[in-house]
Amino acid sequence: MTPKLYIFNGSPPARTVLITAKAVGLNVEAHVFTTNQELKSPEFLKLNPQHTVPTLDDDGKIIWDSHAIMIYLVTKYSKDRSLYPEDPFTRAVIHQKQHFDSGLAFPAFIRIVMPILFEKAKTIPQSSIDEVVTVYDFLETFLEGKNWVAGDFLTLADLSLLPTITTLDCLVAIDEKYLNIKGWIRRCSTLSWYHANKKGLDEFRNRINNLLA
């Protein structure tokens, strides 16, 4: 049975799971929500009482949170362990960067995008811009002397952060001084799964540009 993935189009966490599925060669059936009300339907609440997306239904096994889902997909479906090596230290670094995503980068995105989507905000407060710049500063340092976020090769750390960072770039442009980040995004963009990020990213960019116009 093809795993079913419940998502919002354009959502960075949804794109994280979509690119992970592509990276491991797994087809998923996307169920796309269009309103928040759909998340609180009785049917979906039975699957996920927290009513969050992305949520994965893999033949009755229900998992939510993008980082949990991507680890599950790689562990179950990937023959190549390089995305999530068994070495304890490498895994710890991957988890560290995933927590950076969920604890700093993604909240910076949420604090900007929610007022635009739901309060008709037309400007981004300087405090929110500063928060995003802090994220960029940290990531630039993480990438110093490295091609990839967790070390010498592509891992789930990169797949976790790429959708969030490229989405933040739509809101607070990545300055040209961030050479490491720019190079990292270029490297990711050459990989076969990147189109699964670009499609949702383009949809998000178009929507935000229209709302801010």
TrEMBL record:
Entry-linked Pfam families: GST_C, GST_N_3
A GO term, aspect molecular function: glutathione transferase activity
List, alphabetically, the Gene3D superfamilies matched: 1.20.1050.10, Glutaredoxin
Task: Name the source's superkingdom.
Answer: Eukaryota
Question: Which GO biological process entries does UniProt record here?
Answer: glutathione metabolic process
- Could you tell me which CDD domains the record lists for this protein? GST_C_Delta_Epsilon, GST_N_Delta_Epsilon
The UniProt entry, under InterPro entries, shows: Glutathione-S-Trfase_C-like, Glutathione-S-Trfase_C_sf, Glutathione_S-Trfase, Glutathione_S-Trfase_N, GST_C, Thioredoxin-like_sf
Q: Which residues form the GST N-terminal domain?
A: 1-81
Q: Where is the GST C-terminal domain?
A: 87-212
User: Partners and quaternary state?
Assistant: Homodimer.
Spell out the protein name for this chain.
Uncharacterized protein
Species annotation: Photinus pyralis
